[in-house]
Protein backbone atom coordinates (compact mmCIF):
# COMPACT_ATOMS: atom_id res chain seq x y z
CA UNK A 1 0.00 0.00 0.00
CA UNK A 2 1.40 3.45 -0.87
CA UNK A 3 2.01 5.79 2.03
CA UNK A 4 -0.18 8.89 2.21
CA UNK A 5 0.34 12.30 3.76
CA UNK A 6 -0.77 12.91 7.33
CA UNK A 7 -3.22 15.66 8.28
CA UNK A 8 -1.79 17.74 11.09
CA UNK A 9 -4.80 19.99 11.39
CA UNK A 10 -7.58 20.53 8.92
CA UNK A 11 -10.11 23.25 9.55
CA UNK A 12 -12.41 25.34 7.40
CA UNK A 13 -9.95 28.23 7.58
CA UNK A 14 -6.74 26.26 7.02
CA UNK A 15 -5.36 22.97 5.69
CA UNK A 16 -2.23 21.61 7.38
CA UNK A 17 -0.54 18.41 6.16
CA UNK A 18 2.76 16.64 6.83
CA UNK A 19 4.72 14.50 4.38
CA UNK A 20 8.24 13.41 3.57
CA UNK A 21 8.34 15.23 0.22
CA UNK A 22 6.37 18.17 -1.13
CA UNK A 23 6.37 18.74 -4.90
CA UNK A 24 5.32 22.18 -6.12
CA UNK A 25 4.07 22.26 -9.71
CA UNK A 26 1.86 20.30 -12.07
CA UNK A 27 3.73 19.68 -15.32
CA UNK A 28 5.59 16.52 -16.37
CA UNK A 29 8.65 17.17 -14.18
CA UNK A 30 6.41 17.56 -11.12
CA UNK A 31 4.55 14.34 -11.94
CA UNK A 32 7.78 12.38 -12.44
CA UNK A 33 9.25 13.80 -9.23
CA UNK A 34 6.18 12.79 -7.24
CA UNK A 35 6.17 9.25 -8.65
CA UNK A 36 9.92 8.84 -8.11
CA UNK A 37 9.70 10.00 -4.49
CA UNK A 38 6.72 7.76 -3.76
CA UNK A 39 8.40 4.74 -5.34
CA UNK A 40 11.40 5.46 -3.13
CA UNK A 41 9.20 4.99 -0.06
CA UNK A 42 8.30 8.60 0.72
CA UNK A 43 4.94 10.09 1.59
CA UNK A 44 4.33 12.77 -1.02
CA UNK A 45 2.11 15.80 -1.45
CA UNK A 46 1.89 17.55 -4.84
CA UNK A 47 0.49 21.09 -4.82
CA UNK A 48 -0.32 22.59 -8.21
CA UNK A 49 -1.30 26.14 -9.10
CA UNK A 50 -3.76 24.64 -11.59
CA UNK A 51 -5.11 21.14 -12.13
CA UNK A 52 -2.51 18.40 -12.42
CA UNK A 53 -2.98 17.01 -15.91
CA UNK A 54 -4.14 20.17 -17.68
CA UNK A 55 -1.95 23.00 -16.41
CA UNK A 56 1.36 24.08 -17.90
CA UNK A 57 2.92 24.23 -21.35
CA UNK A 58 3.03 20.48 -22.05
CA UNK A 59 -0.64 19.62 -21.49
CA UNK A 60 -1.99 21.39 -24.62
CA UNK A 61 0.97 20.43 -26.81
CA UNK A 62 2.16 17.67 -29.10
CA UNK A 63 5.81 17.34 -28.16
CA UNK A 64 8.70 15.26 -29.34
CA UNK A 65 11.42 13.99 -27.04
CA UNK A 66 15.17 13.71 -27.34
CA UNK A 67 14.94 9.94 -27.68
CA UNK A 68 18.40 8.36 -27.95
CA UNK A 69 18.51 4.56 -27.54
CA UNK A 70 21.50 2.99 -25.78
CA UNK A 71 24.45 2.16 -27.98
CA UNK A 72 27.72 3.44 -29.31
CA UNK A 73 25.99 6.15 -31.34
CA UNK A 74 24.70 8.07 -28.33
CA UNK A 75 28.04 9.80 -27.69
CA UNK A 76 28.10 11.02 -31.29
CA UNK A 77 24.49 12.24 -31.03
CA UNK A 78 25.28 14.18 -27.87
CA UNK A 79 28.47 15.59 -29.34
CA UNK A 80 26.59 16.90 -32.40
CA UNK A 81 24.00 18.54 -30.20
CA UNK A 82 26.68 20.01 -27.92
CA UNK A 83 28.27 21.75 -30.91
CA UNK A 84 25.10 23.87 -31.16
CA UNK A 85 24.98 24.96 -27.50
CA UNK A 86 27.44 27.84 -27.58
CA UNK A 87 29.97 25.77 -25.60
CA UNK A 88 28.00 26.17 -22.36
CA UNK A 89 26.37 22.75 -22.05
CA UNK A 90 27.83 19.79 -20.17
CA UNK A 91 28.07 16.53 -22.13
CA UNK A 92 28.02 14.42 -18.97
CA UNK A 93 24.63 15.86 -18.04
CA UNK A 94 23.41 15.49 -21.61
CA UNK A 95 24.31 11.79 -21.59
CA UNK A 96 22.69 11.30 -18.20
CA UNK A 97 19.54 12.96 -19.49
CA UNK A 98 19.16 10.90 -22.66
CA UNK A 99 19.76 7.68 -20.70
CA UNK A 100 17.24 8.44 -17.94
CA UNK A 101 14.68 9.86 -20.35
CA UNK A 102 14.90 6.76 -22.56
CA UNK A 103 14.39 4.47 -19.55
CA UNK A 104 11.39 6.52 -18.44
CA UNK A 105 9.87 6.42 -21.93
CA UNK A 106 10.13 2.63 -21.78
CA UNK A 107 8.62 2.79 -18.30
CA UNK A 108 5.68 4.73 -19.72
CA UNK A 109 5.13 1.94 -22.23
CA UNK A 110 5.27 -0.71 -19.49
CA UNK A 111 2.73 1.27 -17.48
CA UNK A 112 0.41 1.19 -20.48
CA UNK A 113 0.81 4.60 -22.09
CA UNK A 114 -0.67 4.29 -25.62
CA UNK A 115 2.31 5.04 -27.83
CA UNK A 116 1.53 4.77 -31.56
CA UNK A 117 3.04 1.97 -33.64
CA UNK A 118 5.31 2.39 -36.66
CA UNK A 119 4.75 0.55 -39.94
CA UNK A 120 6.86 -2.39 -38.78
CA UNK A 121 4.81 -2.77 -35.58
CA UNK A 122 7.38 -1.24 -33.21
CA UNK A 123 6.18 1.37 -30.73
CA UNK A 124 7.12 4.93 -31.61
CA UNK A 125 8.15 6.32 -28.21
CA UNK A 126 9.80 9.55 -29.38
CA UNK A 127 6.59 11.58 -29.31
CA UNK A 128 4.21 12.48 -26.50
CA UNK A 129 0.71 13.84 -27.09
CA UNK A 130 0.42 16.40 -24.33
CA UNK A 131 -3.23 15.95 -23.29
CA UNK A 132 -2.95 12.14 -23.24
CA UNK A 133 0.47 12.20 -21.58
CA UNK A 134 -0.51 14.48 -18.71
CA UNK A 135 -3.84 12.75 -18.16
CA UNK A 136 -1.92 9.47 -17.95
CA UNK A 137 0.66 10.95 -15.54
CA UNK A 138 -2.08 12.25 -13.26
CA UNK A 139 -3.45 8.72 -12.94
CA UNK A 140 0.06 7.40 -12.28
CA UNK A 141 0.67 9.99 -9.56
CA UNK A 142 -2.57 9.07 -7.83
CA UNK A 143 -1.84 5.33 -8.14
CA UNK A 144 1.47 5.98 -6.37
CA UNK A 145 -0.45 7.25 -3.34
CA UNK A 146 0.46 10.91 -3.76
CA UNK A 147 -1.87 13.44 -2.16
CA UNK A 148 -2.72 15.93 -4.91
CA UNK A 149 -3.79 19.45 -4.07
CA UNK A 150 -5.22 20.97 -7.25
CA UNK A 151 -5.64 24.75 -7.47
CA UNK A 152 -3.35 25.23 -4.46
CA UNK A 153 -0.64 27.70 -5.56
CA UNK A 154 2.36 27.97 -3.25
CA UNK A 155 3.26 31.45 -2.06
CA UNK A 156 6.43 30.79 -0.08
CA UNK A 157 8.86 28.24 1.31
CA UNK A 158 9.26 27.47 5.00
CA UNK A 159 12.57 27.08 6.85
CA UNK A 160 13.51 25.80 10.28
CA UNK A 161 16.77 27.75 10.20
CA UNK A 162 18.78 24.79 8.93
CA UNK A 163 16.81 23.51 5.95
CA UNK A 164 13.67 23.97 3.88
CA UNK A 165 10.87 22.17 5.70
CA UNK A 166 7.80 22.82 3.60
CA UNK A 167 5.77 25.51 1.93
CA UNK A 168 2.60 27.51 2.38
CA UNK A 169 0.02 28.92 0.03
CA UNK A 170 -3.66 29.46 -0.58
CA UNK A 171 -6.35 27.23 -2.07
CA UNK A 172 -8.18 29.01 -4.90
CA UNK A 173 -11.47 27.13 -4.67
CA UNK A 174 -11.73 26.60 -0.91
CA UNK A 175 -10.33 30.11 -0.32
CA UNK A 176 -8.31 28.93 2.64
CA UNK A 177 -4.62 28.96 3.47
CA UNK A 178 -2.62 25.76 3.42
CA UNK A 179 0.68 24.60 4.84
CA UNK A 180 2.58 21.38 4.18
CA UNK A 181 5.40 20.36 6.49
CA UNK A 182 7.91 18.33 4.50
CA UNK A 183 11.43 17.05 4.98
CA UNK A 184 12.27 18.04 1.39
CA UNK A 185 10.68 20.20 -1.30
CA UNK A 186 10.94 19.87 -5.09
CA UNK A 187 10.36 23.04 -7.08
CA UNK A 188 8.83 22.02 -10.41
CA UNK A 189 6.96 25.28 -10.95
CA UNK A 190 8.00 25.87 -14.57
CA UNK A 191 9.64 28.86 -16.21
CA UNK A 192 8.61 32.48 -16.58
CA UNK A 193 6.70 33.59 -19.70
CA UNK A 194 6.33 37.18 -18.40
CA UNK A 195 2.56 36.96 -18.96
CA UNK A 196 3.07 36.70 -22.70
CA UNK A 197 0.08 35.11 -24.36
CA UNK A 198 1.49 31.72 -25.30
CA UNK A 199 -0.20 28.33 -25.11
CA UNK A 200 -0.43 26.85 -21.62
CA UNK A 201 1.77 29.50 -20.00
CA UNK A 202 -0.65 31.77 -18.14
CA UNK A 203 0.46 30.35 -14.80
CA UNK A 204 4.18 30.29 -15.65
CA UNK A 205 5.27 33.39 -13.76
CA UNK A 206 8.63 32.39 -12.27
CA UNK A 207 7.25 31.77 -8.78
CA UNK A 208 9.81 29.08 -8.05
CA UNK A 209 12.70 31.38 -8.99
CA UNK A 210 11.77 33.94 -6.38
CA UNK A 211 11.03 31.33 -3.71
CA UNK A 212 14.40 29.66 -4.32
CA UNK A 213 16.31 32.94 -4.33
CA UNK A 214 14.69 33.97 -1.04
CA UNK A 215 15.89 30.66 0.41
CA UNK A 216 19.47 31.33 -0.73
CA UNK A 217 19.63 29.35 -3.99
CA UNK A 218 21.31 30.76 -7.10
CA UNK A 219 20.08 31.07 -10.69
CA UNK A 220 21.92 30.80 -13.99
CA UNK A 221 21.23 31.36 -17.68
CA UNK A 222 18.82 34.21 -17.00
CA UNK A 223 20.27 36.22 -19.89
CA UNK A 224 19.06 33.62 -22.39
CA UNK A 225 15.47 34.80 -22.74
CA UNK A 226 15.65 35.88 -26.38
CA UNK A 227 13.61 32.94 -27.71
CA UNK A 228 10.55 33.97 -29.71
CA UNK A 229 8.20 31.81 -31.76
CA UNK A 230 5.97 32.73 -34.68
CA UNK A 231 2.23 32.70 -34.10
CA UNK A 232 -0.85 33.92 -35.97
CA UNK A 233 -1.48 37.53 -34.93
CA UNK A 234 -3.94 37.65 -32.04
CA UNK A 235 -3.41 33.97 -31.21
CA UNK A 236 -1.63 32.26 -28.32
CA UNK A 237 -0.62 29.32 -30.53
CA UNK A 238 3.18 29.52 -30.43
CA UNK A 239 3.85 26.39 -32.51
CA UNK A 240 6.50 27.33 -35.03
CA UNK A 241 6.94 24.12 -37.04
CA UNK A 242 4.53 24.96 -39.93
CA UNK A 243 6.44 28.19 -40.58
CA UNK A 244 9.33 26.16 -41.92
CA UNK A 245 7.28 26.12 -45.15
CA UNK A 246 6.24 29.78 -45.08
CA UNK A 247 6.96 32.76 -47.27
CA UNK A 248 6.73 36.27 -45.79
CA UNK A 249 5.17 39.44 -47.14
CA UNK A 250 4.30 43.03 -46.32
CA UNK A 251 0.73 44.17 -45.89
CA UNK A 252 0.52 45.05 -49.61
CA UNK A 253 1.51 41.50 -50.54
CA UNK A 254 5.06 42.35 -51.67
CA UNK A 255 7.63 39.77 -50.55
CA UNK A 256 10.05 40.36 -47.68
CA UNK A 257 13.59 39.99 -48.98
CA UNK A 258 16.43 38.33 -47.10
CA UNK A 259 19.93 39.80 -46.64
CA UNK A 260 21.10 38.69 -50.09
CA UNK A 261 17.96 39.87 -51.90
CA UNK A 262 16.13 36.55 -52.11
CA UNK A 263 12.50 36.21 -50.87
CA UNK A 264 12.39 35.37 -47.17
CA UNK A 265 11.21 31.82 -46.57
CA UNK A 266 11.34 29.43 -43.59
CA UNK A 267 10.79 31.58 -40.51
CA UNK A 268 12.33 29.30 -37.91
CA UNK A 269 15.91 28.58 -36.89
CA UNK A 270 18.49 30.94 -38.36
CA UNK A 271 15.84 32.94 -40.24
CA UNK A 272 14.17 34.17 -37.05
CA UNK A 273 16.43 37.23 -37.01
CA UNK A 274 15.19 38.30 -40.45
CA UNK A 275 11.59 37.78 -39.36
CA UNK A 276 12.22 39.89 -36.24
CA UNK A 277 13.75 42.72 -38.29
CA UNK A 278 10.78 42.69 -40.64
CA UNK A 279 8.33 42.83 -37.73
CA UNK A 280 10.13 45.80 -36.19
CA UNK A 281 9.65 47.64 -39.48
CA UNK A 282 5.91 46.95 -39.71
CA UNK A 283 3.10 44.36 -39.93
CA UNK A 284 4.19 40.98 -41.30
CA UNK A 285 2.16 38.43 -43.23
CA UNK A 286 2.84 34.80 -44.09
CA UNK A 287 1.57 32.04 -46.35
CA UNK A 288 2.48 28.36 -45.99
CA UNK A 289 2.90 28.04 -49.73
CA UNK A 290 6.18 26.11 -49.62
CA UNK A 291 4.39 22.97 -48.40
CA UNK A 292 3.45 20.44 -51.06
CA UNK A 293 -0.10 18.97 -50.92
CA UNK A 294 1.07 15.72 -49.30
CA UNK A 295 2.99 17.69 -46.68
CA UNK A 296 -0.06 19.85 -46.01
CA UNK A 297 -2.00 16.74 -45.02
CA UNK A 298 0.84 15.55 -42.80
CA UNK A 299 1.02 18.93 -41.04
CA UNK A 300 -2.71 18.95 -40.37
CA UNK A 301 -2.62 15.40 -39.04
CA UNK A 302 0.55 15.76 -36.97
CA UNK A 303 -0.06 19.28 -35.61
CA UNK A 304 -3.87 19.63 -35.58
CA UNK A 305 -4.02 22.36 -32.95
CA UNK A 306 -1.76 24.55 -35.13
CA UNK A 307 -4.60 25.00 -37.60
CA UNK A 308 -7.46 25.81 -35.23
CA UNK A 309 -6.95 29.63 -35.43
CA UNK A 310 -6.95 29.53 -39.23
CA UNK A 311 -10.03 27.32 -39.44
CA UNK A 312 -11.94 29.53 -37.03
CA UNK A 313 -11.04 32.61 -39.08
CA UNK A 314 -11.92 30.94 -42.39
CA UNK A 315 -8.31 31.14 -43.60
CA UNK A 316 -6.57 28.56 -45.77
CA UNK A 317 -2.99 29.14 -44.55
CA UNK A 318 -1.56 27.32 -47.57
CA UNK A 319 -3.19 29.78 -49.98
CA UNK A 320 -4.15 32.92 -48.04
CA UNK A 321 -1.93 35.57 -46.53
CA UNK A 322 -2.42 35.93 -42.77
CA UNK A 323 -0.83 38.27 -40.27
CA UNK A 324 1.81 36.85 -37.90
CA UNK A 325 3.75 37.97 -34.86
CA UNK A 326 6.61 36.72 -32.71
CA UNK A 327 5.71 35.69 -29.17
CA UNK A 328 8.32 36.05 -26.43
CA UNK A 329 8.80 32.81 -24.49
CA UNK A 330 10.97 33.97 -21.61
CA UNK A 331 12.58 31.06 -19.79
CA UNK A 332 9.92 28.56 -20.95
CA UNK A 333 11.87 27.98 -24.13
CA UNK A 334 14.80 30.02 -22.93
CA UNK A 335 17.33 28.27 -20.71
CA UNK A 336 17.47 30.17 -17.43
CA UNK A 337 16.37 29.00 -14.01
CA UNK A 338 17.50 27.75 -10.62
CA UNK A 339 21.07 26.50 -10.63
CA UNK A 340 21.63 22.79 -9.97
CA UNK A 341 24.70 21.88 -7.95
CA UNK A 342 24.58 18.08 -7.84
CA UNK A 343 23.41 14.99 -9.71
CA UNK A 344 20.24 14.69 -7.64
CA UNK A 345 19.09 18.20 -8.67
CA UNK A 346 19.85 19.79 -5.32
CA UNK A 347 20.01 23.58 -5.21
CA UNK A 348 22.63 23.99 -2.50
CA UNK A 349 19.95 24.89 0.04
CA UNK A 350 19.41 21.85 2.30
CA UNK A 351 16.07 20.20 1.59
CA UNK A 352 15.42 22.09 -1.67
CA UNK A 353 15.47 20.38 -5.09
CA UNK A 354 14.48 21.55 -8.55
CA UNK A 355 13.26 19.97 -11.80
CA UNK A 356 12.01 20.83 -15.27
CA UNK A 357 11.84 24.40 -16.54
CA UNK A 358 12.19 25.75 -13.00
CA UNK A 359 15.82 24.63 -13.26
CA UNK A 360 18.45 26.19 -15.46
CA UNK A 361 18.86 24.08 -18.58
CA UNK A 362 22.25 25.52 -19.54
CA UNK A 363 23.86 22.19 -18.72
CA UNK A 364 21.59 20.66 -21.38
CA UNK A 365 21.12 23.35 -24.02
CA UNK A 366 23.69 26.05 -23.26
CA UNK A 367 22.92 29.36 -24.97
CA UNK A 368 20.25 27.99 -27.33
CA UNK A 369 16.68 26.91 -26.78
CA UNK A 370 15.80 23.39 -25.73
CA UNK A 371 12.63 23.79 -27.79
CA UNK A 372 10.14 21.02 -27.15
CA UNK A 373 12.16 17.81 -27.49
CA UNK A 374 15.17 18.60 -25.29
CA UNK A 375 13.03 20.23 -22.61
CA UNK A 376 10.60 17.32 -22.70
CA UNK A 377 13.35 14.77 -22.07
CA UNK A 378 14.84 17.04 -19.43
CA UNK A 379 11.49 17.03 -17.59
CA UNK A 380 11.40 13.22 -17.72
CA UNK A 381 14.92 12.94 -16.33
CA UNK A 382 15.26 15.85 -13.91
CA UNK A 383 11.90 15.12 -12.31
CA UNK A 384 13.04 11.56 -11.64
CA UNK A 385 16.40 12.65 -10.20
CA UNK A 386 14.86 15.37 -8.02
CA UNK A 387 12.18 13.06 -6.64
CA UNK A 388 14.77 10.42 -5.76
CA UNK A 389 17.09 13.03 -4.28
CA UNK A 390 14.36 14.65 -2.20
CA UNK A 391 13.11 11.32 -0.86
CA UNK A 392 16.64 10.24 0.07
CA UNK A 393 17.17 13.53 1.90
CA UNK A 394 13.83 13.06 3.67
CA UNK A 395 14.85 9.58 4.81
CA UNK A 396 18.09 10.96 6.28
CA UNK A 397 16.11 13.53 8.24
CA UNK A 398 13.42 11.05 9.23
CA UNK A 399 14.35 11.07 12.91
CA UNK A 400 13.92 14.83 13.27
CA UNK A 401 10.53 16.02 14.41
CA UNK A 402 8.85 18.87 12.59
CA UNK A 403 9.13 22.13 14.46
CA UNK A 404 5.89 23.91 15.25
CA UNK A 405 7.57 27.27 14.72
CA UNK A 406 9.05 27.76 11.25
CA UNK A 407 10.18 30.81 9.35
CA UNK A 408 8.14 31.80 6.29
CA UNK A 409 10.58 33.12 3.68
CA UNK A 410 8.27 35.04 1.34
CA UNK A 411 8.83 38.78 1.14
CA UNK A 412 8.03 40.79 -2.02
CA UNK A 413 4.33 40.76 -2.82
CA UNK A 414 3.48 39.29 0.59
CA UNK A 415 5.24 41.28 3.30
CA UNK A 416 6.23 44.73 2.01
CA UNK A 417 9.36 46.25 3.51
CA UNK A 418 7.52 49.55 4.03
CA UNK A 419 3.87 50.55 4.01
CA UNK A 420 1.54 49.12 1.34
CA UNK A 421 0.44 51.54 -1.38
CA UNK A 422 -2.71 51.20 -3.43
CA UNK A 423 -1.07 52.78 -6.48
CA UNK A 424 1.41 49.88 -6.72
CA UNK A 425 -0.79 47.21 -8.29
CA UNK A 426 0.05 43.75 -9.61
CA UNK A 427 -1.32 44.47 -13.07
CA UNK A 428 0.70 47.66 -13.49
CA UNK A 429 3.86 45.93 -12.25
CA UNK A 430 3.46 43.10 -14.77
CA UNK A 431 2.82 45.49 -17.65
CA UNK A 432 5.86 47.59 -16.70
CA UNK A 433 8.08 44.48 -16.73
CA UNK A 434 6.65 43.35 -20.06
CA UNK A 435 7.50 46.73 -21.58
CA UNK A 436 11.18 45.97 -20.93
CA UNK A 437 11.50 42.23 -21.58
CA UNK A 438 9.17 41.36 -24.47
CA UNK A 439 9.65 44.01 -27.26
CA UNK A 440 11.77 42.77 -30.14
CA UNK A 441 13.91 45.91 -30.24
CA UNK A 442 14.77 45.52 -26.54
CA UNK A 443 15.04 41.78 -25.97
CA UNK A 444 15.51 40.01 -29.31
CA UNK A 445 18.13 42.60 -30.33
CA UNK A 446 20.00 44.02 -27.34
CA UNK A 447 22.48 46.83 -26.74
CA UNK A 448 24.23 48.19 -23.69
CA UNK A 449 22.33 51.47 -23.93
CA UNK A 450 18.97 49.73 -24.11
CA UNK A 451 19.81 47.26 -21.36
CA UNK A 452 21.02 50.04 -19.09
CA UNK A 453 17.74 51.95 -19.49
CA UNK A 454 15.65 48.82 -18.96
CA UNK A 455 17.73 47.91 -15.93
CA UNK A 456 17.20 51.32 -14.36
CA UNK A 457 13.44 51.13 -14.90
CA UNK A 458 13.25 47.64 -13.43
CA UNK A 459 15.35 48.59 -10.40
CA UNK A 460 12.97 51.47 -9.66
CA UNK A 461 10.01 49.16 -10.18
CA UNK A 462 11.53 46.50 -7.91
CA UNK A 463 11.90 49.00 -5.06
CA UNK A 464 8.18 49.77 -5.32
CA UNK A 465 7.34 46.06 -5.42
CA UNK A 466 9.58 45.24 -2.47
CA UNK A 467 8.41 48.15 -0.35
CA UNK A 468 4.76 48.63 -1.25
CA UNK A 469 3.08 45.73 -3.12
CA UNK A 470 0.75 43.62 -1.00
CA UNK A 471 -2.42 41.61 -1.45
CA UNK A 472 -5.03 40.10 0.85
CA UNK A 473 -6.69 36.70 0.56
CA UNK A 474 -6.65 35.29 -2.95
CA UNK A 475 -5.16 38.55 -4.25
CA UNK A 476 -1.84 37.36 -2.76
CA UNK A 477 -1.57 34.95 -5.68
CA UNK A 478 -1.58 37.85 -8.10
CA UNK A 479 0.79 40.07 -6.11
CA UNK A 480 3.21 37.21 -5.62
CA UNK A 481 3.14 36.45 -9.35
CA UNK A 482 3.82 40.11 -10.10
CA UNK A 483 6.78 40.11 -7.70
CA UNK A 484 8.14 36.92 -9.31
CA UNK A 485 7.82 38.36 -12.81
CA UNK A 486 9.55 41.57 -11.69
CA UNK A 487 12.39 39.61 -10.10
CA UNK A 488 12.86 37.41 -13.17
CA UNK A 489 12.87 40.42 -15.49
CA UNK A 490 15.39 42.21 -13.33
CA UNK A 491 17.75 39.21 -13.25
CA UNK A 492 17.35 38.69 -16.99
CA UNK A 493 18.25 42.26 -17.92
CA UNK A 494 21.15 42.42 -15.47
CA UNK A 495 22.68 39.16 -16.72
CA UNK A 496 22.21 40.26 -20.35
CA UNK A 497 24.12 43.45 -19.67
CA UNK A 498 26.87 41.53 -17.87
CA UNK A 499 27.42 39.13 -20.79
CA UNK A 500 29.49 41.35 -23.08
CA UNK A 501 29.16 39.33 -26.27
CA UNK A 502 26.62 37.66 -28.54
CA UNK A 503 26.06 33.95 -27.93
CA UNK A 504 23.09 31.80 -28.88
CA UNK A 505 19.83 33.62 -28.28
CA UNK A 506 21.66 36.48 -26.51
CA UNK A 507 22.15 38.94 -29.38
CA UNK A 508 24.07 42.15 -28.68
CA UNK A 509 23.98 44.55 -31.62
CA UNK A 510 26.86 46.49 -30.07
CA UNK A 511 28.94 43.35 -29.40
CA UNK A 512 28.46 40.90 -32.29
CA UNK A 513 30.30 37.59 -32.08
CA UNK A 514 31.34 35.38 -29.19
CA UNK A 515 33.98 36.42 -26.67
CA UNK A 516 36.09 33.44 -25.44
CA UNK A 517 36.26 35.09 -22.02
CA UNK A 518 32.51 34.44 -21.63
CA UNK A 519 32.52 30.74 -22.49
CA UNK A 520 31.06 30.01 -19.05
CA UNK A 521 27.78 30.30 -17.18
CA UNK A 522 26.72 33.40 -15.23
CA UNK A 523 25.34 32.67 -11.76
CA UNK A 524 23.08 35.12 -9.92
CA UNK A 525 22.71 35.00 -6.13
CA UNK A 526 20.50 37.22 -4.00
CA UNK A 527 17.21 39.07 -4.33
CA UNK A 528 17.42 42.75 -3.37
CA UNK A 529 21.20 43.08 -3.63
CA UNK A 530 22.11 40.28 -6.00
CA UNK A 531 25.53 39.50 -7.40
CA UNK A 532 26.54 38.02 -10.74
CA UNK A 533 29.63 35.88 -11.10
CA UNK A 534 31.15 33.41 -13.52
CA UNK A 535 30.25 29.87 -12.55
CA UNK A 536 32.98 27.67 -11.04
CA UNK A 537 33.60 24.21 -12.36
CA UNK A 538 30.67 21.87 -11.74
CA UNK A 539 30.63 21.16 -8.03
CA UNK A 540 31.01 17.64 -6.75
CA UNK A 541 27.77 16.15 -5.54
CA UNK A 542 26.95 17.34 -2.05
CA UNK A 543 25.75 15.11 0.74
CA UNK A 544 22.12 16.11 1.18
Summarize the structure.
The chain is an alpha+beta fold and 544 residues long.
Properties at a glance:
alpha+beta, 544 residues
List the helices and strands and how they pair.
Elements: E1 6-11, E2 14-24, H1 28-39, E3 44-47, E4 62-64, H2 73-82, H3 91-111, E5 127-129, H4 130-143, E6 147-149, E7 154-159, E8 164-171, E9 176-187, H5 207-215, E10 218-220, E11 228-232, E12 247-249, H6 272-281, E13 284-287, H7 293-302, H8 308-313, E14 322-328, E15 337-338, E16 352-354, H9 362-365, H10 373-396, E17 407-408, H11 426-437, H12 440-444, H13 448-468, H14 475-498, E18 522-525, E19 531-534
Parallel strand pairs: 2-3, 2-9, 3-6, 9-16
Antiparallel strand pairs: 1-2, 4-5, 7-8, 7-17, 8-9, 10-15, 10-18, 11-14, 12-13, 13-14, 18-19
β-strand percent reads 15-25%
Q: In terms of per-residue confidence, which ranges show pLDDT below 50 for 5 or more consecutive residues?
A: 537-544
Overall morphology:
globular
In angstroms, what is the radius of gyration? Answer: 23 Å
Mean pLDDT: 93
**Largest β-sheet summary:** 9 strands, mixed
The helix-and-strand class reads: alpha+beta
The DSSP helix count reads 14
Please explain how this structure is put together.
The two termini are 27 Å apart. The protein is built from 14 helices and 19 strands. The model is unreliable at 537-544 (pLDDT under 50). The protein has 544 residues and is of the alpha+beta class. Helix 1 links the parallel strand 2 (14-24) and strand 3 (44-47). Helix 2 crosses helix 3, helix 3 (91-111) packs across helix 10 (373-396) and helix 11 packs parallel to helix 14 (475-498). The strands form 4 sheets. Strands 1, 2, 3, 6, 7, 8, 9, 16 and 17 form a 9-stranded mixed sheet that branches. The chain has helices spanning 28-39, 73-82, 91-111, 130-143, 207-215, 272-281, 293-302, 308-313, 362-365, 373-396, 426-437, 440-444, 448-468, 475-498; strands at 6-11, 14-24, 44-47, 62-64, 127-129, 147-149, 154-159, 164-171, 176-187, 218-220, 228-232, 247-249, 284-287, 322-328, 337-338, 352-354, 407-408, 522-525, 531-534. The chain is globular and about 70 Å long.
Amino acid sequence: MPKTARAVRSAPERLHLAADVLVLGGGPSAAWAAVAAAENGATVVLADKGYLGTSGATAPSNTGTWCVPPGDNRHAVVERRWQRTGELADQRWMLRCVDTAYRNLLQLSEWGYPFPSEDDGRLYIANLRGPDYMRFMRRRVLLAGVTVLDHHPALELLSDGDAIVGAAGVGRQAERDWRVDARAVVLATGGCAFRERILGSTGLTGDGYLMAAEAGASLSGMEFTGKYTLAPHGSSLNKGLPFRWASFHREDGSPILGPTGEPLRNGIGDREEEVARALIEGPLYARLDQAEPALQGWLRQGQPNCFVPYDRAGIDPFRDLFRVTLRAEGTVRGTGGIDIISDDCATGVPGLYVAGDAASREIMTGAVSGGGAINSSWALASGWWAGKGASTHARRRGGKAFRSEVLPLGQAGLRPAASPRADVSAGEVIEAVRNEVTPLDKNFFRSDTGLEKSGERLETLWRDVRDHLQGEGLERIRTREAASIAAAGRWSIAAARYRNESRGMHRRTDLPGKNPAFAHRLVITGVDDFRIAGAPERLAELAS
